[in-house]
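Weekly modeling sync, notes
Attendees: AB, CL, MP (scribe)

Item 1: holo prediction request
CL wants a bound-state model with adenine before deciding which constructs to order. AB pointed out that an apo prediction alone won't tell us much about the pocket. Agreed to run with the ligand included and paste results into these notes for async review.

Input as submitted:
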Amino acid sequence: MVDFHILTLFPDMVMQGLHTSILGRAVDRGDIAIEAVNIRDFTTDKHGKVDDYTYGGGAGMLMQAQPVFDACQSVIDRIGQDRRRRVIYVTPQGKPFHQAMAKELSMEEELIFLCGHYEGIDERVLEEIVTDEVSLGDYVLTGGELAAMVMVDAIARLVPGVLHNEESAETESFGDGLLEYPQYSRPEIWHGKRVPEILLSGDHAKVDAWRLEQALLRTKERRPDLYEKYMEAHDLYNQRG
Ligand code: ADE
C-alpha cells in the first residue's frame, strides 16, 4: 500500500489522468491512494498569488516558498511523523527516472510529489522539504504534472495487488534488465506472416529459451547500453563474446 500525494497548481488534471483504468480500480480497492493537493489553497496572499519575480532579474516568474512549504506541511501533518515518506521534486535537473527507481519507490509508504510551474520553485523551500529530485528525461515540459503522473503510474503498478497478474511485471521490458521478446496472438497466419513455429510446439523449455534469445537480440540491437549492463551483471561476456 502506497499513498501518493501530488502537490500541484492543476489538481483536476492530475486526478483525471490517474483515476482511470487499472489505477482507478486499484484506488477503489484500496491497494493505493492518490490525492492531489492544490498549492494555491495554501497561499497567505490575499489575491491567491503563488508566484513572483526572480531576484537578480531574468524572464519568468518563480513559485514562492510559502505556499509550497505549507501545502507540503499539511500533508505531513495529516499522515503523521512515523510513516516512511519521500518528497520528490520533479524537475529536468533531477536524477533520470528508471524502472529500478520505480521499484524502490514502490516500497515506500508515503510519496509526496512536488510539481513546479513557471520558471521553477524558490530554492530555499526545496532545500527544506525535498528528499529526491527526479527527471523524466532530457527535455523540458511546461510543468511537473505530466512527469509526476508518469512516475506515479510506473510506481503504482509495482505495488502488490495493483496488477492482478503478478507475473507480468516480472517478465515485461526492464523487469530483468532486458527489453521484452516479441509476442503473437491469433490467427496463426496474418497478412501472410506466420507465428514463429516454436511458439506452437507446446515445449515450454524451448519457448522460454527462444524468448530469452529474442529478448537478448532485441536489446542488443535497440539498446546496446542495456545489453552491455545485462551481460556484465550476468557475467556472460566470456561465454558469448
Ligand atoms: N518538469 C519539466 N520538465 C520536466 C522533466 N523533463 N522531468 C521532470 N519534471 C519536469
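Recorded for review: The chain has a mean pLDDT of 94.
Action items: CL to compare against the apo run; MP to circulate these notes.
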